[in-house]
Design goal:
single chain; alpha/beta; five-stranded parallel β-sheet; elongated; binds ligand C2E; binds magnesium ion
Length: about 625
């Protein structure tokens, strides 16, 4: 058997020679001065131990060396024994031991004593590493919960030993965990995992039979007897998670499988719970799903679509449909929105709601969006070439496209390539993109507008944004989706909100297009509220380009009025505006988003009034006043 290798570093040349001489009968030794190269030498050769003579090496260098060794997975298991003499300060020794050194020996001891100490250190190290290895084989090193294989083994054992019991397996993760890691750093991510592990442990322990562990990343598995209380417990855990951090909201995802067949493998049980967790939640308020066979079929279809994506893009299986936009004021079509469809060779026409989320998930959405934008530019180019004034066509911009300002150059280059004046290509950016990354999306919007594009805020009303946020973002048009306001039990309330939104948009001089308009009653409501533009099945469904080509071109050639949206249809609005300023008392129009109250419009007396109030009662006057306004 080859002798074990020892690396002797630090100290003087004479000390190293003395130590090497003492150890050469039992070990193969190498010597080196202390320096940066020691870590590299350790990485390059499998040393059994390093003997570091402290003489002449600074306190900081020793600490930094021991720290670097500890953090380097490849060499963290190589024990370091420090060599000391009578001149070495006692605190240097204890601090080195604290920083991870295994033991110390006196360099002035006899060769036999030195050999004995080194052998003991190596034996100690062997037994500690085998303990460590057996711990790692069963437990997750970060959370100290069971790892996947121990959890699965225990689940199968519990099922086998308790054939009459009904069990539930819950698979749990945090949907936006990667964001926590990238925003707060890996250390905070690990701390969060430990907190989650502690909570799982506390929860599961109330059951007589249970198993729990960390499967991988932020994914945990919990196996407990099934009780109807489970849903309530899951809801409660969501609240508990929300209290973990003020800086970010943790979005938990639970997939549950109720084990009917005890002979199933734990792997299969976990897969079923994963399918439940992955299935899109119909209701955003619900963070859990129970497994069903339908989910499995959906997942299979999604996987099939995902496999076909690249080929479909290459083969141009995606078709651009147009849905017309109508002006209530001019009573004619004024443009259209381009909406993509997938003409799948086997599955037929697939709507975007089914595949856009999949493209967003794997990042291919940018490629698909570019394809749609290019197709629309080609169309606009053809229309211009044939001597027509084209209508404005809007395209959708996914939030994934808005990761950097590069998108501005990309779209600008595209319109240049097809010689299309940018005003004809309108860009729809969804409201939630503005609230998720306000500064960047604001900058992108500003740059796009500077380059001549019109920017529409899509799906307004779908998220949590308030109208007051619009004061800070310069967009060209607001797209209000009727489906977010109607369809509720209280139709009247929905109507009131639409009217109020229209009023406020007017005050902000922001044109509005209502989309999802299906009924005559909606058209009448919008007309009364002063909404100028509408889009929806009532006026036309999305259809292949040829269907609307002629009517759109005719409307556009009529005149270019549609380029200058009318914002003053309702004289009544102007009248109200004037009244506002003429009222002698304080008057303000506010937008309340459930938490904060924002003033959208106020007259001068109101400002003065607030100034006085806050001067005198700075602590709670605003709250008090807010309550009064809300009432
Ligand atoms: P969106 O941009 O808000 O588009 C409007 C959606 O509402 C379209 O659904 C349209 O067909 C539908 N719609 C229009 N009028 C009515 C109506 O009166 N009643 C009802 N019930 N629905 C109406 P579609 O075409 O299925 O598109 C859904 C979403 O998919 C779009 O919502 C958009 O977010 C996304 N999408 C579509 N094409 C693209 C694209 O090229 N790129 C990206 N990134 N997203 C796209
Ligand atoms: Mg849109
Ligand atoms: Mg929309």
């Amino acid at each position: 058997m080859r002798p074990e290798k020892l690396l002797i570093v630090g100290g003087t040349r004479e000390t190293r020679a003395y130590l090497a001489n003492a150890l050469k009968t039992d070990y193969e030794t190498a010597e080196a001065e202390f320096g940066e190269q020691v870590i590299e030498m350790m990485r390059a050769k499998a040393y059994s131990a390093v003997l570091l003579s402290l003489a002449g090496v600074s306190h900081e260098d020793i600490q930094s060396f021991l720290r670097r060794r500890q953090q380097d997975q490849k060499i963290s298991g190589v024990p370091v024994v420090i060599g000391v003499n009578k001149n070495i300060d006692g605190s240097d020794i204890t601090e080195a031991l604290d920083a991870g050194a295994w033991d110390y020996i006196s360099e002035e001891a006899s060769p036999e004593a030195i050999r004995m100490r080194i052998r003991l250190a190596l034996q100690h190290c062997d037994s500690a590493s085998s303990q460590k290895l057996s711990f790692l084989a069963q437990y997750d090193p970060v959370t100290r919960l069971y790892n996947k294989s121990s959890l699965f083994e225990t689940v199968e054992k519990l099922l086998e030993d308790n054939p009459g019991r009904k069990f539930a397996y819950v698979r749990f993760d945090i949907e936006n965990f990667h964001a926590v890691n990238s925003m707060m750093g890996l250390e905070s991510g690990d701390q969060l995992l430990c907190k989650m592990a502690k909570a799982i442990e506390n929860y599961a322990r109330q059951y007589d039979l249970c198993a729990y562990g960390r499967i991988e990343y932020d994914i945990f598995g919990i196996f407990i007897p099934f009780t109807p209380q489970l849903k309530k417990d899951i809801e409660a855990s969501r609240k508990q998670l929300a209290s973990y951090s003020m800086e970010y909201t943790l979005i938990p995802r639970f997939g549950i499988y109720i084990v009917e067949d005890p002979s199933l493998s734990a792997e299969k049980i976990n897969t079923y719970a994963c399918i439940a967790a992955e299935s899109p939640q119909k209701n955003g308020a619900k963070c859990y799903s129970f497994y069903s066979e339908v989910m499995e079929q959906q997942l299979r279809r999604q996987q099939m679509l995902q496999n076909d994506m690249s080929k479909a893009l290459k083969e141009k299986q995606f078709k651009v449909y147009l849905q017309p936009k109508y002006s209530l004021y001019h009573e004619r079509f004024v443009g259209a929105e381009a909406l993509v469809r997938w003409q799948h060779p086997e599955e037929g026409l697939i709507p975007p709601g089914e595949f856009i989320p999949l493209f967003e998930k794997n990042g291919m959405i940018s490629e698909l969006d570019y394809y749609v934008w290019e197709t629309v530019c080609q169309l606009l180019h053809q229309w211009i070439e044939s001597g027509n004034t084209p209508p404005q066509i809007s395209v959708n911009v996914s939030r994934m496209d808005l990761a950097s300002l590069q998108i501005v150059d990309k779209i600008s280059a595209l319109v240049r390539k097809y010689q299309v004046p940018p005003k004809y290509l309108n860009l729809e950016i969804t409201e939630s993109a503005y609230s998720s990354n306000p500064e960047l999306v604001k900058a992108i919007t500003a740059a796009l507008r500077l380059n001549g594009f019109r920017v529409l805020m899509d799906d307004f009303g779908s998220g949590y944004s308030s109208l007051s946020m619009l004061k800070d973002i310069n967009i060209d048009e607001l797209k209000l989706d009727m489906r977010f306001f109607t369809g509720t039990d209280d139709g009247k309330r929905g109507e009131d909100i639409i009217v109020a939104m229209m009023h406020m948009a007017k005050w902000l001089h922001l044109p509005v297009i209502a989309e999802g308009v299906e009924k005559e009653s909606q058209v009448e409501l919008l007309r009364r509220a002063g909404c100028e533009y509408v889009q929806g099945f009532y006026f036309g469904k999305p259809e292949p380009v040829e269907k609307y080509e002629r009517i759109l071109l005719e409307s556009a050639s009529h005149d270019e009025e549609n380029m200058n949206p009318v914002t003053d249809i309702l004289d009544l609005m102007q009248l109200q505006n004037d009244m506002f300023e003429r009222v002698l008392n304080g008057m303000a129009l506010c937008d309340f988003d459930g938490e904060s109250l924002n003033i959208v419009h106020a007259n001068a007396s109101f400002g003065k009034l607030l100034g006085r109030l806050w001067d005198h009662e700075p602590a709670n006057a605003q709250e008090h006043y807010t309550e009064q306004i809300v009432r």
